[in-house]
Amino acid sequence: MNRVFEVSELNARIRDRLVTDGRLCDLWARGELSDVVNHRSGHRYFTLRDKESRISCVLFRNHGRSLRFDLKDGLNVLVFGDLEFYRPRGQVQILVRAVRLDSGIGSKHQELEMLKKKLAAEGLFDQDRKRRLPPYPRRIGVVTSPDGAALRDVLRVLGPYPAKIVLSPAQVQGDSASESIAAAIRDLRGKVDVTIVCRGGGSAEDLWPFNTEMVARAVSQSDSPVVTAVGHETDVTLVDFVADERAPTPSAAAELVRPDLSLIREDLIKTEGRMARALAASLERRQDRLVYLEKRLSGRMMKGLLREQRQRLDRASEHLVSAMWQRWKQLHADLVTKEGRLSSVSPLATLFRGYTMVRSEEGLIARAADARLGEEVEVVFQDGKLVCRVMAREVRG
Amino acid sequence: MDSMDDGLDLESAFEELEQIVQVLEEGNLSLEESLEVFEQGVSLVRVCNASLDRAEQRIECLTGGLPSDING
Q1: Which candidate in B12, B21, B40 is best for mutational testing of the A interface (most A CBs within 10 A)?
Q2: DSSP helix/strand/coil, B69
Q3: Distance from first CA to last CA of chain B, Å, rounded?
Q4: Residue B16's closest chain A neighbor by CA?
Q5: A64: pLDDT confidence band, cut at 50, 70 and 90?
Q6: Which of B24, B60, B69 sits opposite A275 (nearest CB)?
Q7: DSSP character string of A235-269
């Protein structure tokens, strides 16, 4: 039978093994802070962890005085100290002598917060900057990795919607990912009506390239509205704030961008119906009017019209005849008057009153002096004439 | 920009349709004009439907090649 240890004996043995391992002294360890407890005594207890493991840590008061920031859950730090085995509990822990913010993701978080404030102050997150997505995009840009599942999800959802899909490939992970994503967004300038920027799920570090100013600015400067879907629903990156729409997943982004085909078809049917009804209504209106006009154009009405015209003609011709008759009477009366006036001035009329007229061969003898002695003259009466000879002449004066 | 390549512009097709319907509903057109406009509308609807019917995914990659499992 193997040897049986008492617990304290066992723990003592473990401790002996650990403290004699030089590699476990003066060590640096990197991880995220959690379960931070600031004890009344001034000692601080916390857990350092990464994705897979955790280890307890203690920072005693005397070492904690030089700390220049508050320990908070979620901070990524580097701790310096020695590994210790705490015998009473059989627990391994780090006796921490110094804590530094991890130059990696930890300080990145602080930088991100500052960057957020800066961009917010510039108005890049303002709601009134958000553009409406086009209802029927003809060209849909997709910025993502050509090899990722996100692209396949997007393509599957877009399906047979009649639009051109323009893939602008980007490296979505790694050192130059930010540059690559920003460039891919810029490359779509003038080529698409809407842009999807997406990436499948990953660790916070994997998604980090979407937290950079470069990518945020590329999104804000995009000439087409941008829908972002980075990581899973719970992941929020800087680009989501700048984007015109944020979708929880790449598939959801595609849903936002693509109009519902069945709705389009419904719309078309409705439109067709409206046109047909409008045309039918306009035909009906015309028909009604035709019927109305037809009624008014009846035969009786035509006869009445004819009779009226005939009467007008009759009246006109009567008028014409009577006018002519009036005119004739007037002219006749004129003639009679003129005749009377003419005869009253005729010399012959004087003869009727008993006067006579004396004429020689040379004409009328109006004065005694005009007559020659012995000359033959005619004395004209109303009913004839006498031929006389001038026997004597007496001229007065 | 090549409009054939980019497919039917559904948005402007719908705008045009809406205008046609409005003009028809106002009813100020002559009968002949109404019929003409109506026919325009119906053929536009037909074009839209046909474009939806035969729509297939057309993918282009800005840098050239697409992964083999994606048909461009």
Answers
A1: B21
A2: coil
A3: 19
A4: A271
A5: confident
A6: B24
A7: ---HHHHHSSEE-SSHHHHHHHHS--HHHHHHHHH
Q: How many C-beta neighbours within 10 Å does residue A141 have?
A: 27
| Residue of chain B whose Cα is closest to the Cα of A190 | B1
Measured between CB atoms, which of A136, A159, A279 is closest to B10?
A: A136
A147 inside 8 A of chain B by CB: yes
Q: Give the minimum alpha-carbon distance from B58 to chain A in angstroms, rounded to a whole number.
A: 5
| CATH hierarchy code of domain A7-105 | 2.40.50.140
Mutation choice for B interface testing from A186, A192, A224, A271 by most B CBs within 10 A: A271
Residue from A136, A185, A194 whose CB has the most chain B CBs within 10 Å, to mutate = A136
Chain centroid to CA B33: 22
Q: Looking at residues A283-298, what average pLDDT do you find?
A: 82
The token duo for A35 is: 């379960």
Question: How high is the pLDDT of residue B7?
Answer: 56
The whole-number average pLDDT for the span A305-326 is 87
Contact between A44 and A63 under an 8 Å Cβ cutoff? The reply is no
Lookup: tokens for B32:
């002949």
Provide the residue ranges of all domains of chain A, joining segments of one domain with +. 7-105, 110-257, 261-340, 349-389
Residues composing chain A: 397
pLDDT in tens, B19-70: 888 888 887 888 788 888 888 888 888 888 888 877 777 888 888 778 777 7
Q: Which residues fall within 8 angstroms of residue A36, CB to CB, at 6 or more apart?
A: A44, A45, A46, A71, A72, A73
Asked if the Cβ–Cβ distance from A164 to B61 is below 8 Å, we say: no
Domains A7-105 and A110-257 share a fold: no
| Chains A & B: contacts with CB separation below 8 Å | 118
Cβ <8 Å between A279 and B38? yes
Is the pTM above the cut of 0.80?
no
Residue A30: closest CA among A106, A93, A83: A106
Prediction ipTM score: 0.74
CA distance A135 to B18: 15
Residues from chain A that touch B48, judged by Cβ atoms under 8 A, are 264, 268
Q: Is A167 on the interface with B (CB under 8 A)?
A: yes
Contact A164 B58 (CB under 8 A): yes
Cβ count within 10 A of residue A168: 24
| pLDDT tens track for A180-202 | 999 999 999 999 999 999 999 88
CATH number of A110-257: 3.40.50.2300
